[in-house]
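TODO from last week: model Glutamine cyclotransferase.
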Amino acid sequence: MPRPPLRFAGLIVGLLLAVGATLPVRAEVPTQAYQVVHAYPHDRTAFTEGLFFHAGALYESTGLYPSSVRQVRLEDGEILRRHDLPTVYFGEGLAALNGKLYNLTWRNHIGFIFKLEDFSPLGGFSYPGEGWGLTTDGRRLIMSDGTDQIRFLDPDTLAETGRISVTADGRPLDQINELEWIDGEVFANLWQDNRIARIDPETGVVKAFIDLTDLVPKDAGLDPNDDVLNGIAWDAAGKRLFVTGKRWPQLYEIRLR
């Protein structure tokens, strides 16, 4: 169909405005406020990649070499149990399901499985692409790879069963990093970004951002390129939300408003 003359198209727009019609406007993702409830000590050598809360303790995976998997006491940051990965592996996301601890590696395409109660090795698994963040909804493992994609894995076969594309304001949002499942949503760190994204696990749409730019004092001596926000843990029983970062001196309990 040929386009109408410009004067005719202008008349149509004028009529729409005259009757109060509006053209669609893309809604911006809202930013959610927070308050700090408490600050706990955090190991300044821990290059945090994965974090979750289970049975009164924190579980944390670290990157760099050697990378490690740790059980940490919340109150004072003391390491209660630690297992170092072979030095060829750069550790990434961490999650626990059905008594097993799953740990990703960055570019080795290999994940490790440990017994949750004592970190004894149970085997491994492989996957295409990079490994970044890992969490669980109680049925599936949920994995990020640094892109805008979030994968869902069967915890028994470790096969991919589905995936979603994460979008914010209708545009793909990549650099999805550490993950946490919280009350039916996926909370995600964004690499080198001070925001946490709240993601709808069905659609991939970001429902809100939590901007933590002012969480850490400016004089904390952090490297802005490496010592970035990364690490989300949720105490489902106590309804407590914890966040930290790579080599941060503290782990923070925050409350969303």
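Done. Confidence is low (pLDDT under 50) at residues 1-25.
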